[in-house]
Write a structure and sequence with these properties.
Blueprint (H helix, E strand, L loop, with lengths): L6 H10 L4 E5 L4 E3 L4 E3 L4 E10 L7 E9 L4 E7 L9 H10 L1
Parallel strand pairs: 1-6
Antiparallel strand pairs: 1-2, 2-3, 4-5, 5-6
């Protein structure tokens, strides 16, 4: 496992290792609009997780997920953690919570 001090370091490091798709979380899936790609929780695996706290407020947290799809697409998802996290389906909550 790699160690990163910031979200941007993690994203740059993962990109250098082939995680090139930028995912966003939707209610019940993750999406990449640029590639018109949508993955349900059973269609991807979280391979690495990095958590970061804000410098002035520990409650200001972000999580960077390294994701690999069942078809071989590799990308990243940056998500809020805790109260700042958006609503999600039970399946998405379970998928992302397992690795937080």
């Amino acid at each position: 496992m790699y160690t990163y001090d910031t979200v941007s370091e993690a994203l740059n490091g993962l990109r250098q290792r082939g995680y090139s798709v930028d995912f966003n979380r939707d209610y019940d899936c993750i999406i990449c609009s640029e590639r018109q790609l949508s993955l349900q929780p059973n269609e991807f695996t979280i391979t690495e997780v990095y958590r970061f706290e804000g410098p002035s407020d520990p409650a200001d947290e972000a999580v960077v997920y390294a994701i690999e799809s069942s078809s071989g697409e590799k990308g990243t998802l940056v998500d809020g953690f805790g109260p700042s996290s958006e609503s999600a389906s039970d399946a998405m909550v379970q998928k992302l919570a397992v690795r937080r």
